[in-house]
Design a protein that fits this description.
This protein has 372 residues and is of the alpha/beta class. Helices cover 47% and strands 13% of the residues. The chain folds into 3 domains: 57 residues; 185 residues, Rossmann fold; 63 residues, Winged helix-like DNA-binding domain superfamily/Winged helix DNA-binding domain (Arc Repressor Mutant, subunit A, Orthogonal Bundle). α1 packs across α6, α8 packs across α18 and α11 crosses α12.
Length: 372
């Protein structure tokens, strides 16, 4: 009966995680709460409507949830389940249940969240994918929100890096949003899990996504914000992370790019500026405990530049000093998109190139090489 009782608690109106937590403290289990008589429940402040829903849950919603849970690799993980993630448990207002589609054991792995703008630049998406791939290769699971832009790039990068990834959804576990990420969601199932606190059938609602963001931050040792505008939901995730005592990292961008302003604001507020996945791994080593760091350390930008100086200079000559689109630069240089993205990131960190809105790049004049 335990599973059905937890579903009844979650389907009952006006309870929420705070209300359920109070009831659990008094009764000790979901079964005991559901089995309590009306006078006992009224004594704990439950309304007649809430008690009625608790005693007789909506048959369609309950049936839908039970049917969903009957499928392979579909799980209901609640507060008293040993698989419930400890990091999430200690955060305030943690969800009483998680609907998990995929590998439930993945929830126990050390996680880093990578989030950012839905309207990401091509460079931002490539940076997110590169960070995710390197971190995944280090044995760290990548958590994000399945949204377009940076989230999608982070999930994809983790999979391409041979690692695992979790998508926290703002819908029921059977409702993929946005629809264009249906194929990506299937890949995530096969290489991690889709999770949600919302029951099957729940559509996308505006108010659900901040709640999703608190789970993303609660599951993770820290959050990396790659691109974010000043009103981005990613800043909510970062705030939740700070409130939970987790690390907040931000990737800098051009001062002219609107999707970099949120990251720069976070850095001003104390977020750690990161230039590579190694920065993140080093910072989190003490928090994560025994993370198996299998990644080959990334060389710093000066070392990498000195080893490949002719290639960089040739690329800069191809760029010129006028704004140029990324794909145009790919054609001019004859490099792969991944190679060019990595070079541009290093040159931007050195102050030789800046990212412009719309996925354009521009070489800066007046740059002096370090130590010369």
């Amino acid at each position: 009966m335990d599973q059905t009782s937890w579903l009844a608690l979650c389907l009952a109106p006006n309870l929420g995680s705070v209300g359920i937590e109070k009831l659990m403290a008094q009764f000790g289990s979901a079964d005991a709460i559901v089995s309590a008589n009306r006078k006992q429940l009224e004594a704990h402040g439950l309304s007649a409507a809430t008690i009625a829903e608790l005693k007789s849950p909506d048959a369609d919603k309950l049936g839908s949830a039970l049917n969903w849970l009957g499928a392979p690799d579909h799980h209901l993980i609640h507060w008293q389940d040993p698989r419930y993630p400890n990091l999430l448990r200690v955060c305030g207002n943690s969800p009483p249940v998680l609907f998990v589609d995929g590998d439930a054991d993945a929830l126990a792995l050390p996680q880093i969240a990578i989030v950012g703008s839905r309207n990401a630049t091509p460079g931002g998406r490539e940076n997110a994918a590169e960070f995710a791939a390197h971190l995944a290769n280090a044995g760290i699971l990548i958590t994000s929100g399945l949204a377009s832009g940076i989230d999608s790039a982070a999930h994809t990068g983790a999979i391409q890096g041979g690692g695992k990834t979790i998508a926290v959804m703002g819908t029921g576990p059977d409702q993929i949003y946005p629809r264009e990420n249906t194929a990506l969601a299937q890949q995530i199932r096969e290489n991690g899990a889709l999770i949600s606190e919302f029951p099957p059938g729940m559509p996308a609602k505006r108010e659900n996504f901040p709640r999703r963001n608190r789970i993303i931050s609660g599951l993770s040792l820290g959050v990396v914000v790659v691109e974010a505008g000043m009103r981005s939901g990613s800043l909510i995730t970062a705030r939740y992370s700070g409130d939970c005592g987790r690390e907040v990292f931000a990737v800098p961008g051009s001062i002219h790019s609107p999707v970099s302003k949120g990251c720069h604001r976070l850095i001003k507020q104390g977020a750690k500026l990161v230039e590579s996945s190694s920065d993140i791994i080093e910072e989190l080593a003490s928090l994560a405990g025994a993370i198996s760091v299998q990644e080959t350390p990334l060389p710093d930008s000066a070392e990498l530049r000195s080893e490949t100086e002719p290639t960089y200079e040739k690329m800069l000559c191809s760029m010129g000093f006028e704004p140029v689109a990324f794909q145009t630069l790919v054609k001019r240089c004859g490099l792969t998109a991944g190679e060019l993205s990595s070079m541009l990131l290093i040159l931007e960190l050195e102050g030789r190139v800046e990212t412009l809105p719309g996925g354009y790049f521009q070489q800066l004049t007046g740059w002096n090489r370090p130590h010369e």
